Amino acid sequence: MLKIAIFGAGHLGKFHLNNWEEIEDVKIIGFFDPNDENAKIVIEKYNIPRFENAENLIDQCDAVDIIAPTINHFDLCEMALKKGKHVFVEKPLANTMEEARALVKLAKESNLKFQVGHVERFNPAFLALKDYQLEPMFIEVHRLAEFNPRGTDVSVILDLMIHDIDIILTLVKSNVNYISANGVAVMSDTPDIANVRIEFDNGCVANLTSSRISLKKMRKIRLFQKDAYIGIDFLDKKTEIIRLNQADDKNDFSFDIETNNGIKTIGISNPPIETVNSIKLELEAFKSAIINNTETPVTIIDGFRAMEVAHLILDKINGKQHQ
Predict the structure, then answer these.
(1) Angle, nearest 10°, between helix axes 11-20 and 278-292?
(2) How far, in Å, CA of 133 to CA of 190, rounded?
């Protein structure tokens, strides 16, 4: 029985609690949240003990699940690692790059399991592409959300765009060469809308737009690669693949077009999308890594790289604002 300790019982924390309760061979031994209102709801609904001291809770568990505000990530992760506990922490990994570097060093020395909560890796629309060879050379991303005061403790880059940064770094097997960025603070003290261009050493270019002051929601990534276009809708859980000269059984339908180079066949397919619970999947993956002593699917290095690019973007935006 894996003993889990929960840190943070707010909006997302309750989703984690619900899912941990459905995972076999797991026991939630307690939670820590300084907010009395949150704590009261959790005690009444889940009948889980509340700990007033974070250290005491860590002492009694095998692994921690940290869904606390970003500013608390470092202290809780550091304490857990030093006490020999496995760590799941929501994105972003830490509040500063200095904290993130310290955690990477500590995690490496500890030989414990460490997973960062980049949940879009477990989105069924993205998982549907696991058997396809993805080598994008141009990427277009739109992630738009309605304004919600929750999450504004960090910029839209670290709140929303970091999801897409992680996905892009997973897809593009190349180092970042150059970043240009613009961002505007509208409703909070940090950028609420941003547009970013990332250029990679291999020639791939990614354009990202993120906003948390939109009237409609959107979470789409479009990938363009040699002879193929792939559209991923993370919100509506749909995936579309359009390929050149691919008339085969994988296509839902195909048609021919006449070009200067002769007749070309365009194949269009929509891979089957499984109905899955992304949060439950990522927590189950964390548990599996601990039980089977395997690598977590989203490692601390993955979390660090996404955060590093996010901070390079913020540096570009802040530099322009202070010119």
Answers:
(1) 60
(2) 37
244 three-state secondary structure: strand
The SS3 assignment for 238 reads strand
**How many whole angstroms separate alpha carbon 225 and alpha carbon 104?**
33
In this structure, whether the domain defined by 124-273+309-321 belongs to CATH 3.30.360.10 is answered with: yes
Distance CA 166, CA 187 (A): 25
Q: Pairing mode, if any, of strands 86-90 and 138-144?
A: unpaired
Q: Domain 2-112 class?
A: alpha beta
208 beta partners: 141, 196
Tell me the residue type at 321. Q
| pTM for this prediction | 0.90
Q: What is the DSSP string of 267-287?
A: EEE--------HHHHHHHHHH
Q: How far is CA 133 from the centre of its chain?
A: 21
What are the boundaries of each domain within the chain?
Answer: 2-112, 124-273+309-321
Type and span of the H or E element at 55: helix 54-59
Going by the DSSP 8-state scheme, the letter that residue 85 receives in this structure is -
pLDDT tens per residue across all 323 residues of the chain: 999 999 999 889 999 999 999 999 999 999 999 999 889 999 999 999 999 999 999 999 999 999 999 999 999 999 999 999 999 999 999 999 999 999 999 999 998 999 999 999 999 999 999 988 999 999 999 999 988 766 566 789 999 999 999 999 999 999 999 999 999 988 888 889 999 999 999 999 999 999 999 989 999 999 999 989 999 999 999 999 988 765 455 555 555 555 556 666 777 888 999 999 999 999 999 999 999 999 999 999 999 999 999 999 999 998 765 54
In angstroms, the CA 287 to CA 196 distance is 35
How far is residue 235 from each of residues 120, 154, 244, 255, measured CA to CA in Å? 10, 22, 27, 29
Q: Answer yes or no: are the C-beta atoms of 59 and 79 closer than 8 Å.
A: no
Closest-CA residue to 284 (of 21, 23, 85): 23
